[in-house]
Amino acid sequence: MISKKFYSTTILLLIFLVACKEEPKPTTEKVTIVTQDSVAPKEEIQKEEEPFKLTDENAIDFFFNYNKTLKDDKVRITTTLGSFTVQLYDDVPYHKANFIYLTKKGYFDNTQFHRVVKNFIIQGGNSDDKATAQKRSAIGRYLLPPDAKKGYKHHRGTISMPSSEVDNPHMLASPYEFFIVVTKPGSYHLDGEYTPFGKVIEGMDVVDKINAQRVGKGDWPFQNIYITKAEVVK
Questions:
Q1: Which residues have CB under 8 Å from 121's CB, separation 6+?
Q2: What is the pTM of this model?
Q3: What does the DSSP assignment read for 117-149?
Q4: What is the largest CA-CA distance in the chain?
Q5: Which residues pair with 153 in a beta bridge?
Q6: First CA to last CA across the chain, in angstroms?
Q7: Secondary structure letter of residue 6 according to DSSP
Q8: Which residue range or ranges hold the PPIase cyclophilin-type domain (predicted)?
Q9: How many Cα neighbours within 13 Å face the side chain of 109?
């Protein structure tokens, strides 16, 4: 009898102890909830800046500043008929800077002497090749004001800038083209209307050779005369 009571008491005691066991404490570890706002932002994709292009509005300021540190004044023009060198006038700054700039940009390479007028001029800087139009588009569309009051005349060997073919009452210059006078002693009827900005100092025989080529309608040579390379020289 005592034994049964002992076992009963023991069982009850165990049940009580199990029931009274300390409940587990809640964990104190923090849980980080990642939201869209807490994620580090991805690097913003930088928009590519539009390439600089010359326009009628910015060309004068650009060439004014470009000319400030410009020490170059000679350009060698190599053609399929030989090469010649021109020296540019320092006091015709916009036209000088323009010619140096286009030379360094490689614009004149693979353009042509597209107009040859016997005993008068050879005119270069244009082409019917698609690449020439693409280069013009990349550089920009602009005209330059004439600068014909520096006292320079259109002597033989003078390099000058033609006026644009657009409606142009102010004789604004087409910056991509140039002409060289071959007339002896010169073509002085051009003075005051066009801008002389340099002269041939070497290779005038090549200029004469280009002027002697056979031409067709529009004074375009029957055989294309390419400028294979224009480069600044010391």
A1: 115, 179, 180, 181, 182, 183, 187, 211
A2: 0.77
A3: ETTTEEEEEE-SSHHHHHHHHHHB---B-----
A4: 151
A5: none
A6: 128
A7: H
A8: 79-232
A9: 9
- Which pair of structure tokens corresponds to residue 180? 């060289």
Q: Phi-psi category of 171—alpha, beta or left, where left has phi over 0 and alpha has psi -120 to 50? A: left
- Amino acid (1-letter code) at residue 202: E
* The length of the chain, given as a count of residues: 234
What fold is seen in the domain 59-233?
Cyclophilin (2.40.100)
Query: What angle (nearest 5°) sits at the alpha carbon of residue 231, between those of residues 229 and 234?
Result: 145
DSSP helix/strand/coil, 54: strand
Cβ–Cβ < 8 Å for 92, 161: no
What is the enclosing helix (H) or strand (E) of 83?
strand 82-88
Band (163; pLDDT cuts 50, 70, 90): confident
Number of H helices and E strands in the chain, helices first, is: 5, 8
Task: List the structure tokens of 85.
Answer: 């060198």
Question: How would you class 51 by CB atoms within 10 Å of its CB: exposed for 0-12, middle for 13-18, buried for 19 or more?
Answer: exposed
Give residue for tokens 């991509």: 176
Q: Higher model confidence: residue 13 or residue 110?
A: 110
Summarize pLDDT for 61-111 with one digit per residue, the tens. 999 999 999 999 999 999 999 999 999 999 999 999 999 999 999 999 999
What lies within 8 Å, CB to CB, of 140 at 6+ separation is 53, 54, 55, 59
